[in-house]
Design goal:
With about 400 residues, this protein is of the alpha/beta class. The protein folds into two domains: about 30 residues; about 375 residues, Glycosidases (TIM Barrel, Alpha-Beta Barrel). Strands 1, 2, 3, 4, 5, 6, 7, 8, 9, 10 and 11 form an eleven-stranded mixed sheet that branches. A two-stranded antiparallel sheet has the order 12-13. Helix 6 runs parallel beside helix 8 and helix 13 packs parallel to helix 14. One of its GO terms (molecular function) is transferase activity. This is Glycosyl transferase family WbsX. Keywords: Transferase. InterPro entries: WbsX.
Protein backbone atom coordinates (compact mmCIF):
# COMPACT_ATOMS: atom_id res chain seq x y z
CA UNK A 1 0.00 0.00 0.00
CA UNK A 2 1.55 3.35 -1.07
CA UNK A 3 1.58 6.64 0.79
CA UNK A 4 -1.49 7.95 -1.09
CA UNK A 5 -3.54 4.93 -0.12
CA UNK A 6 -2.44 5.29 3.50
CA UNK A 7 -3.55 8.92 3.54
CA UNK A 8 -6.89 7.99 1.97
CA UNK A 9 -7.40 5.24 4.53
CA UNK A 10 -6.52 7.59 7.38
CA UNK A 11 -8.88 10.22 6.02
CA UNK A 12 -11.68 7.64 5.74
CA UNK A 13 -11.15 6.55 9.37
CA UNK A 14 -11.25 10.17 10.55
CA UNK A 15 -14.46 10.79 8.60
CA UNK A 16 -16.10 7.68 10.04
CA UNK A 17 -15.11 8.53 13.61
CA UNK A 18 -16.23 12.13 13.18
CA UNK A 19 -19.52 11.03 11.64
CA UNK A 20 -20.22 8.65 14.49
CA UNK A 21 -19.45 11.38 17.00
CA UNK A 22 -21.60 13.97 15.23
CA UNK A 23 -24.51 11.63 14.67
CA UNK A 24 -24.18 10.33 18.21
CA UNK A 25 -24.28 13.87 19.53
CA UNK A 26 -27.23 14.68 17.31
CA UNK A 27 -29.05 11.63 18.54
CA UNK A 28 -28.32 12.51 22.14
CA UNK A 29 -29.38 16.13 21.72
CA UNK A 30 -32.60 15.11 19.99
CA UNK A 31 -33.50 12.46 22.53
CA UNK A 32 -36.02 13.78 25.02
CA UNK A 33 -36.80 12.41 28.42
CA UNK A 34 -40.35 11.16 28.67
CA UNK A 35 -42.42 11.91 31.77
CA UNK A 36 -45.60 10.20 32.93
CA UNK A 37 -47.96 13.07 33.66
CA UNK A 38 -50.90 11.57 35.53
CA UNK A 39 -54.03 13.63 36.17
CA UNK A 40 -56.65 12.50 38.66
CA UNK A 41 -60.04 12.12 37.01
CA UNK A 42 -63.22 12.56 39.04
CA UNK A 43 -65.90 10.45 37.32
CA UNK A 44 -69.03 12.35 38.44
CA UNK A 45 -69.71 14.10 35.11
CA UNK A 46 -71.74 11.30 33.57
CA UNK A 47 -75.27 11.39 32.21
CA UNK A 48 -76.12 7.71 32.07
CA UNK A 49 -75.45 6.49 35.60
CA UNK A 50 -78.66 5.97 37.60
CA UNK A 51 -76.76 5.75 40.88
CA UNK A 52 -75.85 9.42 40.56
CA UNK A 53 -79.48 10.57 40.52
CA UNK A 54 -80.02 10.68 44.31
CA UNK A 55 -77.32 13.35 44.55
CA UNK A 56 -77.86 15.13 41.21
CA UNK A 57 -81.46 14.53 40.10
CA UNK A 58 -81.26 16.51 36.84
CA UNK A 59 -79.31 13.63 35.26
CA UNK A 60 -76.05 15.38 34.30
CA UNK A 61 -74.01 14.32 37.31
CA UNK A 62 -72.18 16.97 39.31
CA UNK A 63 -72.39 19.39 36.41
CA UNK A 64 -75.64 20.25 38.16
CA UNK A 65 -73.63 21.70 41.05
CA UNK A 66 -71.26 23.53 38.69
CA UNK A 67 -73.99 25.19 36.64
CA UNK A 68 -76.33 26.15 39.48
CA UNK A 69 -73.96 28.22 41.63
CA UNK A 70 -75.50 31.57 40.69
CA UNK A 71 -79.01 30.22 41.18
CA UNK A 72 -78.20 28.85 44.63
CA UNK A 73 -75.96 31.74 45.67
CA UNK A 74 -77.05 34.87 43.73
CA UNK A 75 -74.12 37.19 43.10
CA UNK A 76 -71.52 34.61 44.14
CA UNK A 77 -68.02 35.35 42.79
CA UNK A 78 -67.62 31.83 41.36
CA UNK A 79 -68.78 31.79 37.76
CA UNK A 80 -66.68 29.29 35.81
CA UNK A 81 -67.93 27.98 32.48
CA UNK A 82 -66.46 24.84 30.84
CA UNK A 83 -65.48 25.60 27.26
CA UNK A 84 -66.33 22.04 26.26
CA UNK A 85 -69.77 22.39 27.83
CA UNK A 86 -71.40 20.05 30.34
CA UNK A 87 -70.20 16.98 28.47
CA UNK A 88 -71.05 13.39 29.32
CA UNK A 89 -67.66 11.85 30.06
CA UNK A 90 -69.18 8.39 30.04
CA UNK A 91 -69.73 8.84 26.29
CA UNK A 92 -66.82 7.23 24.40
CA UNK A 93 -66.93 9.94 21.71
CA UNK A 94 -66.54 12.65 24.36
CA UNK A 95 -63.80 10.72 26.10
CA UNK A 96 -62.03 10.21 22.78
CA UNK A 97 -61.91 13.99 22.37
CA UNK A 98 -60.59 14.41 25.92
CA UNK A 99 -57.92 11.75 25.42
CA UNK A 100 -56.77 13.55 22.27
CA UNK A 101 -56.50 16.84 24.13
CA UNK A 102 -54.79 15.25 27.12
CA UNK A 103 -52.14 13.48 25.05
CA UNK A 104 -51.61 16.50 22.80
CA UNK A 105 -50.77 18.57 25.87
CA UNK A 106 -48.58 15.97 27.59
CA UNK A 107 -51.02 14.24 29.96
CA UNK A 108 -50.57 10.52 29.27
CA UNK A 109 -52.11 8.87 32.36
CA UNK A 110 -55.51 9.25 34.03
CA UNK A 111 -55.83 8.24 37.68
CA UNK A 112 -59.49 7.38 38.07
CA UNK A 113 -61.08 8.10 41.43
CA UNK A 114 -62.68 4.73 42.02
CA UNK A 115 -65.49 4.01 44.48
CA UNK A 116 -67.12 0.98 46.02
CA UNK A 117 -70.24 1.38 48.18
CA UNK A 118 -73.07 -0.83 49.30
CA UNK A 119 -71.39 -3.95 47.96
CA UNK A 120 -70.88 -2.70 44.41
CA UNK A 121 -68.95 -0.14 42.34
CA UNK A 122 -70.04 3.48 42.18
CA UNK A 123 -69.27 6.10 39.47
CA UNK A 124 -67.62 3.47 37.31
CA UNK A 125 -69.44 4.33 34.09
CA UNK A 126 -66.98 7.05 33.05
CA UNK A 127 -64.17 4.49 33.10
CA UNK A 128 -66.06 1.52 31.69
CA UNK A 129 -68.31 3.21 29.11
CA UNK A 130 -66.28 6.31 28.36
CA UNK A 131 -62.54 5.75 28.62
CA UNK A 132 -62.26 2.03 27.89
CA UNK A 133 -64.65 2.22 24.92
CA UNK A 134 -63.04 5.27 23.36
CA UNK A 135 -61.52 4.55 19.95
CA UNK A 136 -58.16 5.90 21.12
CA UNK A 137 -58.04 4.35 24.59
CA UNK A 138 -54.74 2.73 23.66
CA UNK A 139 -53.12 6.17 23.55
CA UNK A 140 -53.24 6.61 27.33
CA UNK A 141 -52.66 4.62 30.48
CA UNK A 142 -54.82 4.64 33.58
CA UNK A 143 -54.80 3.37 37.12
CA UNK A 144 -57.15 3.41 40.10
CA UNK A 145 -57.20 5.43 43.27
CA UNK A 146 -59.64 3.76 45.64
CA UNK A 147 -61.51 6.72 47.15
CA UNK A 148 -62.67 4.74 50.18
CA UNK A 149 -64.03 7.64 52.20
CA UNK A 150 -67.53 7.83 53.67
CA UNK A 151 -70.29 9.47 51.65
CA UNK A 152 -72.11 12.16 53.61
CA UNK A 153 -74.17 15.10 52.31
CA UNK A 154 -71.30 16.90 50.58
CA UNK A 155 -72.42 16.00 47.07
CA UNK A 156 -76.08 16.88 47.65
CA UNK A 157 -76.33 20.67 47.57
CA UNK A 158 -79.93 20.50 48.77
CA UNK A 159 -78.73 19.12 52.08
CA UNK A 160 -75.08 20.04 52.59
CA UNK A 161 -76.00 23.54 53.80
CA UNK A 162 -77.19 21.97 57.05
CA UNK A 163 -73.71 20.58 57.80
CA UNK A 164 -75.10 17.20 58.71
CA UNK A 165 -72.47 14.48 58.74
CA UNK A 166 -74.86 11.59 58.54
CA UNK A 167 -73.21 8.72 56.68
CA UNK A 168 -75.08 7.65 53.57
CA UNK A 169 -72.52 5.01 52.60
CA UNK A 170 -69.47 3.97 54.58
CA UNK A 171 -66.07 3.52 53.01
CA UNK A 172 -65.23 0.71 55.44
CA UNK A 173 -65.16 -2.82 54.08
CA UNK A 174 -64.80 -6.23 55.72
CA UNK A 175 -62.07 -8.70 54.79
CA UNK A 176 -64.50 -10.66 52.60
CA UNK A 177 -65.54 -7.46 50.82
CA UNK A 178 -61.92 -6.38 50.46
CA UNK A 179 -61.00 -9.66 48.78
CA UNK A 180 -63.99 -9.35 46.46
CA UNK A 181 -62.85 -5.86 45.44
CA UNK A 182 -59.23 -6.90 44.88
CA UNK A 183 -60.03 -10.00 42.84
CA UNK A 184 -62.40 -7.98 40.68
CA UNK A 185 -59.88 -5.23 40.02
CA UNK A 186 -57.12 -7.71 39.19
CA UNK A 187 -59.29 -9.45 36.61
CA UNK A 188 -61.23 -6.46 35.27
CA UNK A 189 -58.55 -3.77 35.16
CA UNK A 190 -55.01 -4.86 36.04
CA UNK A 191 -54.86 -7.24 33.08
CA UNK A 192 -55.76 -4.56 30.56
CA UNK A 193 -52.86 -3.32 28.40
CA UNK A 194 -53.80 0.28 29.24
CA UNK A 195 -53.42 -0.26 32.96
CA UNK A 196 -50.43 1.70 34.26
CA UNK A 197 -47.64 -0.42 35.66
CA UNK A 198 -44.24 0.29 37.17
CA UNK A 199 -41.67 -2.42 36.45
CA UNK A 200 -44.58 -4.61 35.37
CA UNK A 201 -46.42 -4.09 38.66
CA UNK A 202 -49.96 -2.65 38.50
CA UNK A 203 -50.24 0.59 40.49
CA UNK A 204 -53.11 0.76 42.98
CA UNK A 205 -53.58 3.80 45.18
CA UNK A 206 -55.57 3.91 48.44
CA UNK A 207 -57.05 7.17 49.68
CA UNK A 208 -58.10 6.69 53.31
CA UNK A 209 -56.07 4.34 55.51
CA UNK A 210 -58.06 4.83 58.77
CA UNK A 211 -61.20 3.72 56.92
CA UNK A 212 -59.44 0.65 55.55
CA UNK A 213 -57.92 -0.24 58.92
CA UNK A 214 -61.17 0.22 60.82
CA UNK A 215 -63.13 -1.88 58.35
CA UNK A 216 -60.60 -4.72 58.39
CA UNK A 217 -60.35 -4.72 62.17
CA UNK A 218 -56.98 -3.11 62.96
CA UNK A 219 -53.45 -2.47 61.75
CA UNK A 220 -52.37 -6.10 61.87
CA UNK A 221 -55.45 -7.24 60.00
CA UNK A 222 -55.00 -4.51 57.37
CA UNK A 223 -51.34 -5.49 56.99
CA UNK A 224 -52.34 -9.10 56.41
CA UNK A 225 -55.03 -8.10 53.90
CA UNK A 226 -52.65 -5.93 51.88
CA UNK A 227 -50.06 -8.72 51.91
CA UNK A 228 -52.74 -11.06 50.58
CA UNK A 229 -53.57 -8.52 47.85
CA UNK A 230 -49.94 -8.48 46.73
CA UNK A 231 -49.81 -12.27 46.64
CA UNK A 232 -53.02 -12.47 44.62
CA UNK A 233 -51.59 -10.00 42.13
CA UNK A 234 -48.52 -12.20 41.73
CA UNK A 235 -50.72 -15.26 41.27
CA UNK A 236 -52.38 -13.43 38.39
CA UNK A 237 -49.04 -13.32 36.59
CA UNK A 238 -47.61 -9.97 37.61
CA UNK A 239 -44.22 -9.52 39.30
CA UNK A 240 -45.96 -7.77 42.18
CA UNK A 241 -48.20 -4.87 43.16
CA UNK A 242 -47.14 -1.24 43.33
CA UNK A 243 -49.14 -0.27 46.40
CA UNK A 244 -49.37 3.51 46.48
CA UNK A 245 -50.28 5.59 49.51
CA UNK A 246 -52.23 8.83 49.31
CA UNK A 247 -49.84 10.98 51.29
CA UNK A 248 -51.56 13.07 53.97
CA UNK A 249 -51.49 13.25 57.74
CA UNK A 250 -54.40 10.91 58.52
CA UNK A 251 -52.72 8.14 56.55
CA UNK A 252 -49.37 8.14 58.35
CA UNK A 253 -50.30 9.02 61.94
CA UNK A 254 -51.54 6.08 63.98
CA UNK A 255 -51.63 5.44 67.70
CA UNK A 256 -50.44 1.88 67.20
CA UNK A 257 -46.83 3.07 67.11
CA UNK A 258 -45.26 4.56 70.21
CA UNK A 259 -43.02 7.47 69.23
CA UNK A 260 -40.88 6.99 72.32
CA UNK A 261 -40.02 3.43 71.30
CA UNK A 262 -39.97 3.80 67.51
CA UNK A 263 -37.44 6.15 65.94
CA UNK A 264 -39.73 7.10 63.08
CA UNK A 265 -43.27 5.87 63.82
CA UNK A 266 -44.73 7.30 60.60
CA UNK A 267 -42.25 5.46 58.41
CA UNK A 268 -42.56 2.29 60.49
CA UNK A 269 -46.34 2.40 60.13
CA UNK A 270 -46.22 2.77 56.34
CA UNK A 271 -43.55 0.05 55.99
CA UNK A 272 -45.56 -2.35 58.13
CA UNK A 273 -48.58 -1.92 55.87
CA UNK A 274 -46.43 -2.64 52.81
CA UNK A 275 -46.73 0.54 50.76
CA UNK A 276 -43.96 0.93 48.20
CA UNK A 277 -44.71 4.42 46.91
CA UNK A 278 -46.75 7.53 47.61
CA UNK A 279 -48.00 10.74 46.09
CA UNK A 280 -50.45 13.44 47.16
CA UNK A 281 -54.01 13.94 45.96
CA UNK A 282 -54.40 17.62 46.85
CA UNK A 283 -52.36 20.44 48.35
CA UNK A 284 -55.34 20.98 50.66
CA UNK A 285 -54.39 17.79 52.51
CA UNK A 286 -51.23 19.28 53.97
CA UNK A 287 -50.98 22.99 53.16
CA UNK A 288 -52.87 26.15 54.03
CA UNK A 289 -54.61 26.65 50.71
CA UNK A 290 -56.16 29.96 51.72
CA UNK A 291 -53.00 31.63 50.46
CA UNK A 292 -51.09 32.80 47.41
CA UNK A 293 -50.13 29.95 45.08
CA UNK A 294 -46.42 30.81 45.14
CA UNK A 295 -46.38 30.74 48.95
CA UNK A 296 -48.06 27.34 48.82
CA UNK A 297 -45.41 26.09 46.38
CA UNK A 298 -42.67 27.10 48.81
CA UNK A 299 -44.32 24.95 51.49
CA UNK A 300 -44.80 22.10 49.04
CA UNK A 301 -41.11 22.05 48.19
CA UNK A 302 -40.25 21.83 51.90
CA UNK A 303 -42.75 19.01 52.37
CA UNK A 304 -41.20 17.05 49.51
CA UNK A 305 -37.78 17.42 51.12
CA UNK A 306 -39.16 16.21 54.45
CA UNK A 307 -40.80 13.17 52.86
CA UNK A 308 -37.63 12.41 50.94
CA UNK A 309 -35.64 12.05 54.15
CA UNK A 310 -38.29 10.69 56.53
CA UNK A 311 -39.68 7.80 54.49
CA UNK A 312 -38.24 4.76 52.76
CA UNK A 313 -40.81 4.56 49.98
CA UNK A 314 -40.64 6.24 46.56
CA UNK A 315 -42.39 9.60 46.50
CA UNK A 316 -43.78 10.89 43.22
CA UNK A 317 -44.18 14.69 43.16
CA UNK A 318 -47.67 16.16 43.04
CA UNK A 319 -48.93 19.53 41.82
CA UNK A 320 -52.46 20.81 42.40
CA UNK A 321 -54.01 23.41 40.11
CA UNK A 322 -55.87 25.11 42.94
CA UNK A 323 -58.58 24.82 45.54
CA UNK A 324 -62.02 26.40 45.99
CA UNK A 325 -64.97 24.16 46.81
CA UNK A 326 -67.49 26.98 47.16
CA UNK A 327 -69.63 25.57 44.30
CA UNK A 328 -70.71 22.99 46.85
CA UNK A 329 -70.58 25.00 50.04
CA UNK A 330 -70.80 28.74 49.14
CA UNK A 331 -67.80 29.59 51.34
CA UNK A 332 -64.38 28.03 51.06
CA UNK A 333 -60.67 28.48 51.49
CA UNK A 334 -59.43 29.76 48.15
CA UNK A 335 -56.04 29.49 46.49
CA UNK A 336 -55.07 32.90 45.12
CA UNK A 337 -52.96 33.74 42.09
CA UNK A 338 -52.93 30.21 40.67
CA UNK A 339 -52.50 31.46 37.14
CA UNK A 340 -51.26 29.17 34.37
CA UNK A 341 -47.91 30.96 34.62
CA UNK A 342 -47.58 30.14 38.32
CA UNK A 343 -48.88 26.62 37.74
CA UNK A 344 -46.04 26.26 35.24
CA UNK A 345 -43.59 27.12 38.03
CA UNK A 346 -45.04 24.27 40.06
CA UNK A 347 -44.65 21.90 37.13
CA UNK A 348 -41.01 22.88 36.70
CA UNK A 349 -40.47 22.27 40.40
CA UNK A 350 -41.93 18.77 40.03
CA UNK A 351 -39.81 18.15 36.94
CA UNK A 352 -36.68 19.11 38.87
CA UNK A 353 -37.66 16.71 41.66
CA UNK A 354 -38.18 13.88 39.16
CA UNK A 355 -34.87 14.62 37.47
CA UNK A 356 -33.10 14.62 40.84
CA UNK A 357 -34.40 11.06 41.44
CA UNK A 358 -33.27 9.24 38.28
CA UNK A 359 -33.71 5.77 39.78
CA UNK A 360 -37.48 6.15 40.00
CA UNK A 361 -40.04 6.36 37.22
CA UNK A 362 -40.52 10.01 36.15
CA UNK A 363 -44.13 10.04 37.32
CA UNK A 364 -45.77 13.34 38.28
CA UNK A 365 -49.36 13.53 39.51
CA UNK A 366 -51.72 16.46 39.06
CA UNK A 367 -55.00 17.41 40.67
CA UNK A 368 -56.82 17.26 38.48
CA UNK A 369 -58.29 16.70 35.05
CA UNK A 370 -61.81 17.78 36.00
CA UNK A 371 -62.42 18.62 39.69
CA UNK A 372 -64.69 21.54 38.80
CA UNK A 373 -66.49 21.71 42.14
CA UNK A 374 -63.14 22.01 43.89
CA UNK A 375 -61.81 24.42 41.24
CA UNK A 376 -58.74 22.33 40.52
CA UNK A 377 -59.02 21.31 36.88
CA UNK A 378 -56.96 21.27 33.70
CA UNK A 379 -59.92 21.39 31.35
CA UNK A 380 -60.39 24.72 29.54
CA UNK A 381 -62.72 27.36 30.96
CA UNK A 382 -63.83 30.95 30.42
CA UNK A 383 -61.12 32.34 32.74
CA UNK A 384 -57.84 30.89 31.42
CA UNK A 385 -58.95 29.00 28.34
CA UNK A 386 -56.46 26.22 27.64
CA UNK A 387 -53.87 27.91 29.84
CA UNK A 388 -53.25 25.07 32.29
CA UNK A 389 -52.99 22.46 29.54
CA UNK A 390 -50.63 24.71 27.58
CA UNK A 391 -48.44 25.02 30.68
CA UNK A 392 -48.04 21.23 30.80
CA UNK A 393 -47.28 21.12 27.08
CA UNK A 394 -44.71 23.88 27.43
CA UNK A 395 -42.84 22.13 30.26
CA UNK A 396 -43.08 18.47 29.24
CA UNK A 397 -43.61 18.46 25.47
CA UNK A 398 -42.11 21.59 23.94
CA UNK A 399 -39.05 22.23 26.11
Amino acid sequence: MNRTNNLQLLLLIVVLITSQFVFGQAKTSNSKKKYDIAAFLYPAYASDDPRLRPFWPSGIGEWETVTSVQTRFPGHYWNRIPLWGTVNEADPAIMSMEINQAVKHGVNVFIFDWYWYDGRPFMETTLNNGFLKADNADQMKFYLMWANHDVVNTWDTRLNRYNENNVIWTGKVSRAEFEKICRRNIEKYFKLPQYYKIDGKPVFMIYDMPQLIDGLGGVDQATDALKWFKEETKKAGFPGLELQLTMWSINVNHSGFDGSKTKNPENAFVKKLGFTSATHYQFAHFANVNDDYLNILNGVKKEWARIDTAFDFTYYPHISVGWDNSPRTQRSAVVKNNTPENFEKGLRMAKEFADAHPKQVPLITINSWNEWTETSYLQPDNVYGYGYLKAIKKVFVDD
